[in-house]
């Protein structure tokens, strides 16, 4: 159905749509989703998105799995940091918030300012909790408030993490986890994604900053979908 694999140590990957502040910094071998200065310090009020440029077939029987290796790091010891990174799926003709100028901030450039948007599925590594010891991994269904989430130690911030998201169309099982070293934090939800997503979708990654900031770097991304 659909399959790709990108290593962002190789710059200027094809078959992606780069939106807003997404860029390849000269000094770092990564794909960076939000703005930074010449010293790789995060800047406020930034939005970045990438989308796979090809339509991905979807439906009740579809299974998919995606893996993202990424880092979210603060400027020095700054706290709190914002806002995090999300893997998302939307209809291929989806109207993102505010047209071509999404508001930066906690809605990750995916949800309207009220926190709601129809036909959006996302799994978000959310760093803006304001709780010193934790960040969060959540499953978002048409709303920025997660349907399910797990607290993740704040020590994961600044590390290269592995996010894995999978979906089984037959059982409607959504599974997600974030891993660093031998530590893995999983979250799951039963939900029929075919009720909110049409037969053709786009998949992507997104990050934002607001008054609080972080550097959002992607090192690797793969995606595979299959149907019986």
Automatic annotation (TrEMBL):
It holds the Pfam family Lectin_legB. The keyword Chaperone does not apply. InterPro entries: ConA-like_dom_sf, Legume_lectin_dom, Leguminous_Lectin. Residues 3-226 form the Legume lectin domain. Keywords: Lectin. SUPFAM superfamilies: Concanavalin A-like lectins/glucanases. It comes from the Eukaryota. One of its GO terms (molecular function) is carbohydrate binding. Belongs to the leguminous lectin family. This is Bark agglutinin I polypeptide B-like. It comes from Salvia divinorum (Maria pastora). The lineage of its organism: Eukaryota, Viridiplantae, Streptophyta, Embryophyta, Tracheophyta.
